[in-house]
């Protein structure tokens, strides 16, 4: 199984960064790779329970992902399961994501861990997607 870890630092307080990775209205501003928008969702990582999002690219192709928020520990971490849906809306293999927020001398650090991704090709695809999302988050928080 491939695992992915991405680390980014932001010039904001840990509480502010945690809000950006847990509050649905804020998540929508950076959720999904560049060039995607989210026309349908139940994004709320402030409480345990189900979540989903449908991302759409410029050509109108849609990509649905869903899971369960497994833990919320403000302002330190939030964890959730993750599985893509196929064209028949059937969930695929489940993986696990954790956002961890740490204080730094200049603000806060986000550690994004995505575990149990299957093979290296799937891991690389998720690395590209999350890196793109994090560029959007960096643009909002700079």
Automatic annotation (TrEMBL):
It comes from the Bacteria. SUPFAM superfamilies: Bet v1-like. Residues 12-141 form the Activator of Hsp90 ATPase homologue 1/2-like C-terminal domain. Signal peptide: none annotated. Pfam families: AHSA1. Belongs to the AHA1 family. This is SRPBCC domain-containing protein. It comes from Ruegeria sediminis. The lineage of its organism: Bacteria, Pseudomonadati, Pseudomonadota, Alphaproteobacteria, Rhodobacterales.
